[in-house]
Amino acid sequence: MVRALPRPGYPRYPRNSHTARRGVPRVRLLICAVMEATDSNLAKLPLAEGDESHRHPPVNYEAEQALLAAILKNNQAYERVADFLQAEHFADPVHARLFEACGKLIDRGQIANSVTLKNAFESDGALQDVGGAQYLADLEGAFVTIINAEHYAKAIHDLHLRRQLIALGEDMVNEAFDFDLDGSATEQIEAAEQKLYQLGETGQSDGDFKSFRVAVTTAIEQAEAAHRREGQISGVTTGLTDLDELMGGLHNSDLVVLAGRPGMGKTALATNIGFSAARRYAASNGVDGGVVGFFSLEMSAEQLATRILSEQSGVGSENIRRGKLSHDDFDAIVQASHELSTLPFYIDDTPATSIGQVRTRARRLKRRQNLGLLIIDYIQLMRPTAGKAADNRVQEISEITRGLKVIAKELNIPVLALSQLSRAVEQREDKRPQLSDLRESGTIEQDADVVKFVFREQYYKEREEPIRRQDEADEKFHDRHERWQADMERVYGTAEAIVAKQRHGPTGKVRLAFDGATTKFGNLAAEDKLPDQTR
After folding, report:
1. Residue 513 CB contacts under 8 Å (≥ 6 apart), including other chains
2. Do 238 and 252 touch, CB atoms closer than 8 A?
């Protein structure tokens, strides 16, 4: 075994005939001394009468020594643990510096052992206090095997997480006691959830290279599942045949951005997609479609429900809101409501939701209901995590889109996020949107796996109805009006879904049917499809 480390500034433990021999491990006694010297910043709670016990952060210096011994003797041990273990995970600062120095040497292709590290630590006062260069030799001489190196590293990392949890708990308690008018209790909870999430993400060692054989097998299984499905799509259905054919559905771990100017029908298309996915999931007993979580930051849950009721019953949403219903209309609404109430469709209409809250609630819905599709309406109404105010809106949007992409990958579900477009669209003669029209387009376009736009030419044509000019002849005015009517007939009741970016497939556009009264999108007849889909 390796000689226990005296710590500069720590209380010295008493030596006696049983523990004073040079080289005898005294780690347990040392830990007790360190614990006695370490004070928590948490206000002390009154103990039970007669209880003088104290709890202290957990450490295991023996595991740290054993791991360093394995690395110094065989540098391959470092490669086994470097993907999740870092220097700050060590409880002993001397051990942390030794581990970091070993990593630097190994990364440069050099050998890390007691000889190569000697010069680097000759002037290190902390190392001198525990024996100097001789301590390095003692560590290397204590080597037994590297087989257990990974187990030692996981124990070190686990204890680090426990110490971080203790510190986080202390901070939570102290912040709760420290009443601050600028920060509410819910914001403190949100910040604590974000810190816990970040702590849980640190040092994850599950990731590793997969053999190509495993990747190919998974791809074949997905293709086989798509072949068996109706419509032969590999992702969650949108309910729109032509769009599914172009995109193959909404794929797991993808961030899909649906963008458009106000009045184009972004929310309507998103609710159509969400309803179709939930209905297919219920009809197939979970084989197709997916459980849908809908974050509605713009409309209340009741307004969103009214829209979906209108879409599915065929009764105009305006008539539903105003109560202008015939007996047939009321029967249709009741029948639609019965079907909708059985679907796995969940709505969260909390305003100004942060990306941390979205992540927490999505993970909860995934755990409880097996969430299969997450919809955000819309990105620009979200805010970054509490306590992370950015210098400008572009940085905030960057954090939000990166967070949405992380959610998609972590939960292995598609995330459909709606986005506004800039006013630059309105300045062009052809008002079909482009990628550059995305607000804060640099971050949204970069993080998204798929970017699609919804465009309704009818919206603009309706506002271009000719007005008779002064002294204009009747014949000329009628000609202009007839041309406008011809254009209106061409675009009436239609919309375009434009896939401008798709990492895994072609781009292109498809035409859709659109009913303005019920805000419902549907498929067009075959002869009405646009033929210019590109690859």
Report:
1. 493, 494, 495, 521, 522, 523, 524
2. no
Q: Does the pLDDT value for residue 9 go beyond 60?
A: no
Neighbours of 495 (CB within 10 A): 25
- CA 489 centroid distance within chain: 44
% the chain with pLDDT above 70: 75
Query: Quick one: pLDDT band at residue 24, thresholds 50, 70, 90?
Result: very low
Furthest CA-CA distance within the chain: 119
Percent of the chain topping pLDDT 90: 6
Q: Which two tokens stand for residue 84?
A: 């999740």
Q: What is the pTM of this model?
A: 0.64
Give the distance from CA 520 to its chain's centroid. 30
Question: What is the token pair recorded at 402?
Answer: 């990166």
Please state, in angstroms and as integers, the Cα–Cα distance from residue 28 to each residue in 1, 62, 125, 153, 392, following that order: 13, 9, 23, 19, 52
Contact predicate 422/437, CB 8 Å: yes
Please state the separation of Cα 398 from the chain's center in Å.
12
User: pLDDT for 282-306, tens place per residue?
Assistant: 888 888 888 999 998 888 888 888 8
Segment 103-114, tens digit of pLDDT? 888 888 888 888
**Full 3-state SS string of 425-440:** HHHCCCCCCCHHHECC
- Per-residue pLDDT reduced to its tens digit, 189-234: 777 776 776 676 664 545 555 566 666 676 666 666 655 555 556 7
**Please, which residues have CB within 8 angstroms of residue 238's CB and are 6 or more apart in sequence?**
244, 247, 249, 250, 272, 273, 276, 277
User: Which residue reads 């390796």 in tokens?
Assistant: 2
- DSSP per-residue string spanning 472-498: --HHHHHHHHHHHHHHHHHHTTEEEEE
> Tokens 């830990």 correspond to what residue?
31
Please answer whether residues 90 and 64 qualify as being in contact, where contact means their C-beta atoms are separated by less than 8 angstroms: yes
Cβ atoms of 340 and 362 within 8 Å: the answer is no
Separation in Å, CA 462 to CA 184, 190, 459, 511: 48, 46, 6, 19
d(CA 246, CA 405): 22
> For residue 128, how many C-alpha atoms fall within 13 Å in the half-sphere facing its CB?
7
**How far is it, in rounded angstroms, from Cα 259 to Cα 455?**
9
* Residue at 302: amino acid letter: E
Helix/strand/coil for 390? coil
pLDDT value for 415: 94
Neighbours of 488 (CB within 10 A): 15
Phi, psi of 50 (to 5 degrees): 85, 0
Taking the C-alpha atoms of residue 56 and residue 325, their distance in angstroms, rounded to an integer, is: 69
